[in-house]
Amino acid sequence: MPVAWRILPAILFAAVLSAQPPTELLRAAQSPYDLAKYAKSHDEIDGDSLWASWKASNPNVVPCSYRGTDPCMAEILTVQKSDQAIVSLHGDLPQPR
Amino acid sequence: MYVRYLKNADGTWRFSGEYIAHINETNLDRPHKVVQRWDKPFLVVENDQTQGGFALLQGVEDWFDLTQPDFAPVFSNSPRGSFEPFTLLVGREWTSTAVPLSPEVIQLTIGVRDVGFTMNYPVSYIGTYQRRDGEKKFALINSLKADGAPVPAAAFEALGDGPNMTPEQLLAQALSGLRKLAASNDAEGKQWLTLVLENVMNTPEKRELEKLLAPNATHP
């Protein structure tokens, strides 16, 4: 059997894997604290997967998309006497002059 | 981007909405704050809506009522900005401060300087916004100059919106300062005003200022 035929299943398997939404991101998107941690520790955030996990549609926006080589700035805003949390995610920001 | 989560009874979280903000160097040090008074927390996010091509510097604050189930602005204002038109028109600088007076009432104080050449006259305005039972958004119910003179609601809401105002509207809103300039001994300022009036359609304000600028005008 030619070598190409032998490695074809591996190529197909890799392609299927790469088409799957990153499960780590899907899990992280379910909690403000996990999302903030994920954003700080990953170079990229897959916007499509994120929006899909929230069942929201805002495909034109990729969180922290313009950060260059800087880490995503993620901050949790908590609200007193309230069961809620807000995550602020900001990408590459020009430095103040 | 801001993502809001609400906590479920079992301790897990659920996504409750998102908001896309435009953060830039002009508002990097103050993109957001939580204003908590009484039992009404508000998230206040400042957007940068500066448009270089229009000589406009503008911040816009969006207020979110965090007791509401949805995550949408309930009140907006422009805390700072300036509009310096390239052509001979009246420009404007402004700052504003919004303060909740009660859970359902916000007072907005706007300081405006209509500017042009040597003219620089500050005017302060006060607006009261209220949200009635069952309403989500605050609406303007009263607007005044600091001296107590009433200001039409549309004019008040346009104070921080210089680039979308016509030259005639800018002239009308700056009229009190322009009157002082026209009646002053500031020869260069009056020359500037004469040129500005050439770019404005024939309105009562224009006619009044032209009379004041006339060489034989008598000033009160």
Secondary structure layout:
The complex is a heterodimer of chains A (97) and B (220).
Chain A: H1 3-19, H2 23-28, H3 32-41, H4 47-53, E1 73-78, E2 84-90
Antiparallel strand pairs in A: 1-2
Chain B: E1 2-7, E2 13-19, E3 32-37, E4 40-48, E5 56-65, E6 73-83, E7 91-102, E8 105-116, E9 119-130, E10 139-145, H1 153-157, H2 167-173, H3 175-182, H4 187-198, H5 204-213
Antiparallel strand pairs in B: 1-2, 3-4, 4-5, 5-6, 6-7, 7-8, 8-9, 9-10
Helix pairs in contact in B: 3-5
Molecular structure report:
The complex is a heterodimer of chains A (97) and B (220). With 97 residues, chain A is α+β, with helices and mostly antiparallel strands. Chain A has one domain. Chain A is 41% helix and 13% strand. Chain A has four helices and two strands. In chain A, strands 1-2 form a two-stranded antiparallel ribbon. The longest helix of chain A has 17 residues. Chain A starts with a helix and ends in a 7-residue tail after the last strand. Chain B has 220 residues and is of the alpha+beta class. Chain B has one domain. Chain B is built from five helices and ten strands. Chain B has an eight-stranded antiparallel sheet. In chain B, strands 1-2 form a two-stranded antiparallel sheet. The N and C termini of chain B lie far apart (55 Å). The relative contact order of chain B is 0.11. The chains are: A alpha+beta (97), B alpha+beta (220). The interface between A and B is medium-sized, with 30 and 27 residues. β2 of chain A pairs antiparallel with β1 of chain B.
User: What is the number of strand segments of chain A?
Assistant: 2
Q: Determine the most extensive contact between two protein chains.
A: A-B, 30 and 27 residues
Mean pLDDT of chain A: 74
Mean pLDDT of chain B: 86
Radius of gyration of chain A: 18 Å
Proportion of residues in β-strands of chain B: 35-45%
The helix tally of chain A amounts to 4
Largest sheet: spatial strand order of chain B? 3-4-5-6-7-8-9-10
Q: Any low-confidence stretches of chain A, pLDDT <50, length ≥5? A: none
Task: Please provide the ordered H/E string of secondary-structure elements of chain A.
Answer: HHHHEE
